[in-house]
Amino acid sequence: MSAFSLRGRTALITGSSRGIGYALAQGLLEAGARVVVHGRSTATAQRAAAQLSDKTGGVTWATAFEVTDTAAVEQGIHEIAAHWGTPDILVNNAGIQRRSPFLDFPDADWDDLIATNLTSAFLVGKHVARGMAKRGSGKIINIASVQSRLARPGIAAYGATKGGIAMLTQGMCADLAGFGIQANALAPGYFATELTAALVADEQFTQWVEGRTPAGRWGRVEDLVGALVFLSSSASDFVNGQVLYVDGGMTAVV
Ligand code: NDP
Hints:
Blueprint: E1 10-13, H1 19-30, E2 34-39, H2 42-56, E3 60-64, H3 70-84, E4 89-92, H4 107-135, E5 138-143, H5 156-176, E6 181-188, H6 197-201, H7 203-212, H8 225-232, E7 243-246
Parallel strand pairs: 1-2, 1-4, 2-3, 4-5, 5-6, 6-7
Helix pairs in contact: 1-2, 1-8, 3-4, 4-5
């Protein structure tokens, strides 16, 4: 069997009801994994899971829980484990964006960003990793961003969460490697999704992205799949604590 095959593996992807998470779910299904599709609402997650099964012929299961709520995460992970056992692959993808100049940045937006983008990866990561540690194997992939490394006006708080994701990944590597678990981060450049809809609609911003990215274009969600399959499969068994940028070269050049 190819080192990249995910046949027989189970994956949980948070925030896979749409956007990047949905495309990643499709990619893992096509590589042979069965996938737990997750969102905030059961109806949305079920709809996405059914669509993904139709498209790929793969096996999906839908679940919904709030990733910022400790009790909800604990319950959600318990239900997944009861249904399919502890996932072999966890992708911490759920996230939001809020933009404001630093001097006016609303405290509530700061709290929402930290909770949704960073605390969620800690909570879901801890509860899934406990099961992985008992089994002695697992792959955690945290979704970072070019903003883990590059700042732009108006998104200091978002960048703080994504910089945090990069170091959380290294911390997971330090604490979990001894249990047979690898933790890596996948850092997308600019991709057109609901999260970036306002930026895509802004012609000047789009020109900036195209000029600033050596590849000369926005990312397409399918561009992320190969890197995720690599980090999820045994092909990456000696890769641990790394941030893999899939950004058309944006972070490589000034
Ligand atoms: P979308 O807004 O398209 O999708 C976000 C997903 O996260 C949805 O499935 C949503 O569920 C889920 N979600 C959000 N908040 C919560 C919550 N509190 N509890 C449970 N689920 C939640 O975003 P993208 O697909 O663009 O982004 C996905 C990830 O990729 C994020 O971490 C983002 O920071 C990162 N990223 C995105 C980039 C881009 O250019 N788009 C670039 C770099 C990183 P629901 O459908 O129920 O709302």
